[in-house]
Amino acid sequence: MFSNLKKSNYHRPLFFNSVLWLLAFAILIFIFSKGKTPINIDYIYTIAFLLCMAIPVNINFYVLMPLLLKREKYIWYGLAFMLNLILFANISLWIFQPALDKLFPGYFFISYVSNSNLYLVFSIFLIGTTLLKLAEDWFYFNRSENIQLRSKNLQVETQLSSLRAQINPHFLFNALNVVYALALEQKEQTTKAIVQLSDILRYVIYDSDVDRVTLEDEINLLQNYIQFQNHRINTENKIEFDIDVENKRFTLYPMLLLPLLENSFKYGISTTESSGPIKMKIYQKDKHFQFQIKNDKLDTKNTIDEAHSGVGLTNLKNNLNLVYPDKHKLLISDNNHFFEVTVDIYDA
Known about the structure:
The two termini are about 30 Å apart. The protein has eleven helices and seven strands. It is rod-shaped and about 115 Å long. Helix content is about 60%, strand content about 15%. Strands 2-4-5-7-6 form a five-stranded mixed β-sheet, covered by helices on one side.
């Protein structure tokens, strides 16, 4: 669980050990003085005992746990933990009292911990400090996970906003040329074309800035786009749009379909070449949504098209992966004669 954590990322040895040993000192001085006001000998004995205890505790913290426990070598860690405990408990048993008597000859030390209880005290102390260290790891692990989750969510939102904003500049370029040509010829459709373009841009920029839109809104956007394109080329007999929808209030992530229709107009319909119609079908029932679009492949190339070719499909793939992970299918058929895309969404 903690194997991916790096100690340098969160552990502050000075702060952690200061809190730990001050807490241990407060507890032991209370126990050794039996709840009474401590005297000098109590302070000396407690500090010396903690110094002795600090060696196996820090070996456990900075050697055994990183090398064994956090690498999930639990059996080896258990054996090393027991060896560390027994070794330093015995060293304390043999050396601690004589060392105190020699270092402080003016005091008469009586062992605060009996020999029979020394192993128990070492066990409690080592196990307790191990649990505290694991608690610290757990706290920072969850904090790190939460930070990463928030960062991931922010990243996803940023990606979606970026993808949503990437309306093909080629469409805007053509749209403005259409309006400009109509204005020069002073045609009556100029006002209607401007209104239609305004509706499309308002939807793209404002109305689609939500998590979900209704299927009815997306269908209206496609129909509005088709009507606008009719000012550029005659779309009669060029569009076959089959709608089989059970619930028009079914919700989708916005702007999934328009890039596909835009690509079909760019590469499947030409003012100079004959071509078959763009065939579109929208099907929705229960929680299943399907969109199919198919167009002939024409030899229409220009620098703007080439610079942005594939952007719509790339955005569609990214959007589907971000919004509908494991709940969608994307099928692309591409040959010398036609190009077809099928999107299935199972929004359970």
